[in-house]
Design goal:
This protein is α/β, with parallel strands linked by helices. 39% of the residues lie in helices and 17% in strands. It is built from eight helices and eight strands. The protein has an eight-stranded parallel β-barrel with strand order 1-2-3-4-5-6-7-8, surrounded by five helices. The radius of gyration is 16 Å and the shape is globular.
């Protein structure tokens, strides 16, 4: 059984950043203790995506953290990333599993209990559930209630992670819900000090009794 830790799941956003600064911020997040990194690029060509994925993978390997590629199974395979994350409009999870293999990590975005059950049945290793709050990223989001998040946690035996507009000041809404972790973008990526932001998120989560 593959092992991975989604407790502080960092999703990148390169919008408005030079590559050097993007990589610096990504490494700072790794230094701050993020446990898994998802490279998310909605507008790059396949070659541009792969080039950046290889550079990010060099960093994540130095820190022993898995790299997950958002949406693009081809890029994940070409970069030899540890995993891929698939949304509701991406490749079906069972097809991706056949191509990617049993040892690779496949995550799925779900917003309902029905979607969560289907993703698990098809072979997803973990779920991202949300958005809990509105986000500032360019990704279109539909809000998911904490009641639905709790129901999904109870419905599937795989790790469930909350996503969407989360930061150290608002994660208290998740207290008492048996999530495996929180997924954050702007709270780390846009922080003045990404390393400290990651450390602060972990500290705040422990104060709330979240299992991070």
């Amino acid at each position: 059984m593959k092992r991975f830790d989604t407790s502080l799941y960092f999703i990148t956003d390169s919008t408005g950043l030079r590559e050097e600064e993007f990589l610096r911020r990504t490494e700072a997040a790794l230094q701050g203790g993020v446990t898994i990194v998802q490279l998310r690029e909605k507008e790059k060509s396949a070659r541009e995506y792969l080039s950046l994925a290889q550079k990010v993978h060099n960093l994540t390997q130095q820190y022993g953290v898995p790299l997950i590629i958002d949406d693009r199974l081809d890029v994940a395979m070409a970069a030899d990333a540890e995993g891929v994350h698939l949304g509701q409009s991406d490749l079906p999870i069972d097809r991706a599993r056949r191509i990617f293999g049993r040892e690779k990590i496949i995550g799925a975005t779900t917003k309902t209990v029905e979607q969560a059950l289907e993703a698990h049945a098809q072979g997803a290793d973990y779920l991202g559930v949300g958005a809990i709050y509105p986000t500032t990223t360019k990704v279109r989001t539909v809000l998911t209630s904490t009641d639905t998040l709790r129901e999904i946690c109870a419905a599937v035996p795989i790790p469930v992670n909350a996503i969407g507009g989360l930061n150290r000041d608002n994660i208290g809404v998740l207290q008492g819900i048996p999530i495996a972790g929180i997924c954050v973008v702007s709270a780390i990526m846009k922080a003045d000090d990404p390393r400290q932001a990651a450390l602060d998120l972990r500290r705040r989560a422990r104060e709330l009794g979240l299992s991070l």
